[in-house]
Amino acid sequence: MSVxxxxxxxxxxxxFTGSEGTFHAGQMIEYGTNVVGGVTPGKGGQTHLDRxxxxxxxxxxxxxxxxxxxxxxxxxxxxxxxxxSASEGIKTIICITEGIPVQDMAKAKAYIAxxxxxxxxxxxxxxxxxxxxxxxxxPGFVFKKGNIGVISKSGTLTYEAADQIVKAGLGITTAIGxxxxxIIGTTTQQAVELFMNDxxxxxxxxxxxxxxxxxxxxxxxxxxxxxxxxxxxxxxQTAPKGRTMGHAGAIIGGEDxxxxxxxxxxxxxxxxxxxxxxxxxxxxxxxMG
Length: 289
Description:
Blueprint: E1 11-14, H1 19-31, E2 35-39, E3 47-48, E4 51-54, H2 57-64, E5 68-71, H3 75-87, E6 92-95, H4 102-112, E7 118-120, E8 126-129, E9 133-136, E10 145-152, H5 155-167, E11 172-177, H6 188-196, E12 203-209, H7 214-225, E13 230-235, H8 259-268, E14 272-273, H9 280-288
Parallel strand pairs: 1-2, 1-5, 2-4, 5-6, 6-7, 10-11, 10-12, 12-13, 13-14
Antiparallel strand pairs: 3-4, 8-9, 8-11
Helix pairs in contact: 3-4, 5-9, 6-7, 7-8
InterPro entries: Cit_synth/succinyl-CoA_lig_AS (IPR017440), Citrt_syn/SCS-alpha_CS (IPR033847), CoA-bd (IPR003781), CoA_lig_alpha (IPR005810), NAD(P)-bd_dom_sf (IPR036291), SUCC_ACL_C (IPR005811), Succinyl-CoA_synth-like (IPR016102)
Subunit structure: Heterotetramer of two alpha and two beta subunits.
Binding site for substrate: 159
């Protein structure tokens, strides 16, 4: 089992022929992901990376039966791309784009709530199910198949955690980079629920950061419903108050937004907290027994 993407996922790339879309789609195809085509308005009918190009998501879905989309569309148009995918029946929408205006994302999130779809991102590294599908920008060679689910706000820490988990002799069911923007699709709690309901996932790693309350919400849900061991890490332990650190959503607004406060909440809720990302793999192995 896996969550969100697997070998049967039929993936289209929005922003297919741009430099980012071209590079990462090529890497995804090389990894073995079932990329069935892409969308670039005005370039429909062409072929790119040996895959068909369509003018619209509607045309792409009609021709390929795609159910997953990955978005490499510039920030000014990315929210439209998200809404277009939702309205055409795409089930899993993964938005890599960074810098989408907050008001655009607010509109897109409200719009897609009426559709049967799940958004991951924006400003995220994507989703990978090792040896099956890489729908994102992560280095595929780091990820090996196993029974640990990974959830992360940070791209680079997703790869670091995966590397540690593999070096500890464990592996990964699916890794989800949820993104670090103020408004995102899939929350930390929703990702935890996905893994809690996945029979093959036996343990979970959750990587959060300062700002917002997503980790606290997930921890409180876990306290009530959690049945699998979980290891947590919060990035930004030395961050000064009031300054955005890395991600647009990573800003300490109140007492509960600090790394220390979040770590305390995680521990209270039964999650094993590590103070350094270097301890993720060994600690996961310990709690797995």
